[in-house]
Amino acid sequence: MKFLPPICSAVIWGSGQLINKQKIKALIFFVFQLLFAGVELLSGGANILAGTAEPQFRNAGFFVKGLWGLVTLGTMPRESSRQPFYDHSIMLMLAGIISLLVLLIFAAIWIWNIADAWQTRKRMSGGRKTESSVQYFKKLWRDSFEYIMITPGILLIIFISLVPIIFAVLVAFTNYNANFIPPRRLVDWNGFNTFIDIFKIRIWGSTFVQIFIWTVVWAFLATFSAYTFGLFQALILRAKAVKLRNVWRGIFILPWAVPGLVSMLVFRAMLNSEGAINQLLLGAGIIEHAIPFLSNVFWARLCLVLVNVWLGFPYFMALISGLMTTIPQEMYEAAQIDGANVFQVFRKITLPFIIASTAPQILMSVTFNFNNFNMIYFLTGGGPPNPSFQMAGSTDILISWIFKLTLDQRMYNYASALSIFIFIIVASVSAWNLLRTRAFKED
User: What is residue 85's predicted lDDT score, i.e. its pLDDT?
Assistant: First the structure.
């Protein structure tokens, strides 16, 4: 008798609660089952008994068709414009992901329904008093208020953020590229072949390795050059000999206040072969020929770093300036008594304090620059061209290469595989940074 309620609830949701004399709870679980069945039947599930085996699934309801499409990615390409029925692999994959997630939500409710019927019957068999449905939901509201309140947000995250992430990951395991564009040609699952090609095919592997090395070098150069210059400016503004500090500080903040996109486009116009900088140098007689700022690999990469310093140093300057006001003055006074000079005070007191306080910001800046698409795309466009690279330029980083593979070359599976690689790196650094924070350790 103890196993009857959970068994009944497994077949008809809420029936176990009804046996346990919890009518309101039974009705709520049964409504969920009706909703589940209604979605399937009203969306085409009634057609599952008609037709041959293939159309049977294609014309099925939301859940059956979604799972079928996710597994097969379609079986009927569009061979002519007059063809009434055809499959679109990407739409089937997206619908399948959504249907699978919704199915998992209903499965969680189904398990909750069975577990509740079992726990209630167990308490009844032990001679304990069983709470009514109203008492149960009041207790649930009181004990799980925080979880109930964040549930809508979690659902939004699942369907707005998680679905695109899952879709992007799954594309890496298909042959979705310029040669297989649905609905004319259907997409197929190809396992790890995309990842194998990136490392196995020489031109892909060589391009990936060199762009990855440049991406890492760029991330560290961009971060530490801006950080060093920001630290230098903060130290200069703190010097006693500097007058009108707030005025100078306001001037130095201007590059940060101006939208970065505007600054990048202005610098791009100034740095081209006929731009203002070359014209100024030629007019002054300093150079005889225009400097190839954006068409030479060395100059293009140097310009990227310098423009990034211009855009990034105000943030670190403001951050470090604020931090230096929190350093205890007693430490400086003790250092002066001991006869330490300015350089020793900076090396032993100021610099360690600043680095310890800004370490999380430095790491986050490195991860930001690792994916700093705007700087590459709007300043150099990934150029200059490199004939030894596969669909990439000499200043392309991984994220800008992915952009070109996606929009210019339609190599979606390769772009997705590279996105997974970037995610692993960025997520690892971010997680390591989070684990080191004081708030996480206290929790």
Answer: 81
